[in-house]
UniProtKB/TrEMBL annotation:
The keyword Nucleotidyltransferase applies. It comes from Araneus ventricosus (Orbweaver spider). InterPro entries: DNA/RNA_pol_sf, RT_dom. Residues 209-374 form the Reverse transcriptase domain. This is RNA-directed DNA polymerase from mobile element jockey. Pfam families: RVT_1.
Length: 374
């Protein structure tokens, strides 16, 4: 309630700004020819003389030519002012090549759906199945994990999570990318970056409350999913859509703060060959390591083989209880494990097609890759 009240009162009042419609600027020559064209049009309408009509048509065609030349000149100036370092080249290319897609009726197992709400429901049903945890088929492991986790969460824990400072929060706010689609609360990254200092203080208090209580707000666990058609796929098949999850911008900041605490707790316990999703490391460095193995084998005359494992829906079907169990085995502080338990459990999603949203049931095995600010 505190978060909702604060955002409702402050978000738009502190950052709202009217954007005036930009009118096309005409040169003095074009304005003069517009006056001449209008005068000839009036004369032709009064006299109904074919010769006057011909003069009007010639003036109209000449004016169209002047507009085309002016438009071409403006476009040339825009192209000449593009800067490859500020993203303007990509924005212009996207503007020119962008195609608008309208979702056709979808074919489900039972029927054909036409309305936007029915389309959202059909895609939500597919996603709900994807977010189900895989069948582990090993009851002893499940029993061991469930017992360990239940016992751990019942045990009292007095450890505290390092509080968040306003300077740390400001650092993450400055890293927010502009132009990202907002969550249903309509709070954009630009709005957050323009907020006054009192917002920074209040948000710091809210995040520190999350760290102190070891509880992640339920309102921030909702993901709005937007379906995007995959290239060269049947647009009438609900499985042909790639999903983009829109999360609250405020929750992303809180997640980044929590991520810093998790990294500090487990970084020295991970194997040195783990390169994915680690600070200052990337999978490119792992490829370099693999290349060195291959080169060494070639120098020694060895045959080098590789096994690549690709897990379908790896992040969609993560066993969250098993993940929490591994955090316990890595001796992650109990306060962080408890916070992660509330973060991973009870997550929900809603599919949005056009202006219709369909809320689905809770997610069983979905996890996020919290690397958006890195």
């Amino acid at each position: 309630m505190e978060i909702q009240r604060f955002t409702d009162e402050q978000a738009f009042s502190d950052t709202g700004k009217w954007v005036s419609k930009r009118k096309e600027e005409c040169s003095a020559v074009i304005k003069q020819h517009i006056k001449i064209r209008n005068k000839l049009k009036k004369i032709a309408q009064i006299t109904q003389d074919p010769r006057d009509k011909n003069l009007f048509n010639r003036a109209q065609n000449h004016l169209k030519k002047l507009h085309a030349e002016a438009s071409e000149k403006r476009q040339r100036e825009v192209m000449e002012n593009l800067n490859p370092t500020d993203g303007s080249v990509w924005q212009q290319a996207k503007k020119i090549s962008k195609t608008y897609f309208k979702m056709p009726p979808l074919l489900t197992d039972k029927t054909i759906v036409y309305r936007n709400q029915e389309k959202a429901e059909a895609i939500a049903d597919i996603l709900e199945q994807q977010f189900q945890t895989n069948d582990l088929s090993h009851p002893p492991t499940e029993l061991k994990v469930n017992r360990t986790l239940k016992k751990f969460l019942k045990k009292k824990d007095d450890t505290e999570i390092t509080p968040c400072l306003s300077s740390e929060l400001l650092e993450h706010i400055n890293k927010l990318k502009k132009g990202k689609s907002p969550w249903p609360d309509k709070i954009t990254n630009q709005m957050i970056q323009r907020m006054p200092i009192k917002f920074l203080i209040r948000l710091t208090q809210i995040i520190n409350g999350i760290l102190k209580l070891k509880y992640f707000p339920n309102n921030w666990k909702l993901a709005t999913i937007v379906p995007i058609i995959k290239p060269e796929k049947n647009p009438q098949d609900p499985n042909s859509y790639r999903t983009i999850s829109l999360l609250s911008a405020l929750s992303k900041i809180a997640e980044a703060i929590i991520l810093n605490r998790i990294e500090d707790a487990i970084d020295d316990q991970l194997i040195p060959h783990q390169f994915g999703f680690r600070r200052n490391l990337s999978t490119v460095q792992q490829l370099l390591r693999l290349t060195e193995f291959v080169r060494e084998g070639m120098d020694e005359g060895w045959d080098t083989g590789a096994v690549f494992l690709d897990i379908t829906k790896a992040f969609d079907r993560v066993w969250t209880d098993g993940l929490l169990y591994k955090l316990i085995k890595l001796r992650v502080p109990g306060s962080i494990v408890r916070l992660m338990a509330t973060y991973l459990r009870g997550r929900r999603f809603a599919v949005r097609t056009c202006n219709c949203r369909w809320s689905s049931s809770r997610i069983q095995g979905w996890t996020e890759v919290v690397q958006h600010l890195r």
